[in-house]
Write a structure and sequence with these properties.
This protein is an alpha+beta fold and 407 residues long. It contains 11 helices and 19 strands. Helix 1 packs parallel to helix 7, helix 2 crosses helix 8 and helix 5 packs across helix 7.
């Protein structure tokens, strides 16, 4: 997309480093058509993290795709297909749901945005084709149309207490539509003359807004967001801010709207502090909903039948999964790496017991006093808060304890 390329140039000029996102579904390490480049960091990770907690962090969510669903039967059709209730949705409301296989495994994780004339499904870009293909199998005479709209829009994620203020700063008279927006709601508004959607979905423990905008307007809106906070890296002169031989002006350090560009590293830290597992990272197509810890927000047990419903209901009422995603807390800053095994405690830390799980994500947490935290998939019975386990970090076994951070 030309808009993404232009934005990428701005990010490079601000000193961004990048990472690839979107491995092939079969595990092939070669890039695919759904692999995208995300900002890793602008070189000031601590300041980027601080923006999420105290200001507004600006992140181009190029990894996200968008499916547009239209037709008078769309709500009833989605209700029959997905794990959550769509019949009760009112325009402006959002809901998270899974599409499951017949065996109850998670095929797609999505956010449903219901509008009066259409429904939008926000999901990982790598899953767009799969979602459309799977849903299309079950379309017969229903008035439902599915369309990949991913390349028509750009999604800017704004994380932080000042995310709403940043939208309001460029929305002008239309700002009132987002002033009191609650989590899991969305609204249409006009930004710089372009029809956009602002969706609130809190992923980091701070307010989170995603601005969905037409690709043709994305560069201008992105630039407006950046200008409102004093630059992607505030205080850093831009190449076009000065003529030859003159010192570029600095951004006012007392600016009213605190924010900056952020990268995946800062976002990842914040979402782990909020105990938010991600599809394709902490769980995937081999996972059951009950293993994710996300049942309350993704599954309705009163809506009736949907794909994979019997497996989900049977596990909920008659048993439990063999494994579950849990949060782990470490005593210091020694960091277990994703992919590392988790062990039972043995007689000593040097002689751990049996393997009981695997680390899926980890970070050093400022909120936890700069100690390490992680998400891990562990065997049932080892998932309860307070369970003491071991994980390798920096060449030694370190004690870890099951349980999310408090507060």
């Amino acid at each position: 997309m030309n808009a993404i390329n232009s934005i990428r140039t701005m990010q490079e000029q601000a000193g961004a480093s990048f990472l690839s996102y979107g491995p092939a579904p079969d595990g092939d390490s070669e890039p695919t058509s759904t692999t995208v480049e995300l900002v890793e960091t602008f070189g000031e990770y601590e300041a980027e993290y601080a923006a999420i907690r105290k200001g507004a962090g600006i992140f181009i969510a190029a990894q996200r795709g968008l499916v547009e669903v239209t037709g008078k039967d769309r709500i009833e059709f989605l209700h029959r297909m997905l794990t959550n209730d769509t019949r009760q949705l009112q325009p402006g409301q959002s809901r998270r749901a899974f599409l499951l296989s017949k065996q109850g495994r998670i095929l797609v994780d999505m956010l449903i945005l219901h509008e009066a004339h259409r429904t939008l499904l926000m999901l990982d870009r790598v899953d767009v084709s799969l979602l459309i293909k799977e849903l299309d199998k079950y379309l017969f005479t229903e008035d439902v149309k599915l369309r990949d709209a991913s390349d028509e829009y750009v999604q800017i994620a704004l994380h932080g207490a000042k995310a709403g203020a940043l939208v309001n700063a460029i929305a002008g008279e239309d700002a009132a539509s987002t002033d009191a927006m609650e989590n899991m709601h969305h609204a249409g508004l006009t930004l710089l003359g372009a029809p956009c959607i602002v969706s609130r979905f809190d992923e980091t423990g701070s307010p989170g807004l995603t601005v969905i905008m037409p690709g043709a307007s994305a560069v201008a809106i992105y630039e407006a967001c950046v200008e409102a906070v004093g630059g992607l890296v505030p205080g850093t002169p831009r190449a076009d801010d000065s003529s030859e031989g003159e010192q570029a002006p600095q951004v006012d350090p007392k600016r009213a709207l605190v924010g900056r560009g952020i990268g995946w590293l800062a976002y990842n830290t914040a979402r782990l502090e909020a105990n938010r597992p991600l599809f394709h990272i902490d769980f995937g197509p081999d996972s059951l909903p009950a293993e994710t810890g996300l049942l309350d927000e993704t599954v309705s047990f009163t809506k009736g039948c949907y794909l994979g419903q019997e497996v989900v209901a049977r596990m909920q009422h008659l048993g439990h999964p063999k494994r579950k995603i849990v949060a782990l807390r470490c005593k210091d800053d020694r960091l277990p790496i994703a992919g590392s095994q988790v062990f039972e405690k043995g007689e000593t830390d040097d002689k751990p017991g049996a393997v009981v799980g695997v680390i899926t994500s980890s970070t050093i947490s400022p909120l936890a006093g700069n100690t390490a935290i992680a998400l891990a998939t562990v065997k049932w019975g080892k998932h309860t808060d307070g369970t003491e386990l071991l994980a390798p970090a920096e060449g030694v076994m370190v004690p870890v304890k099951v349980g999310a951070m408090k507060g």
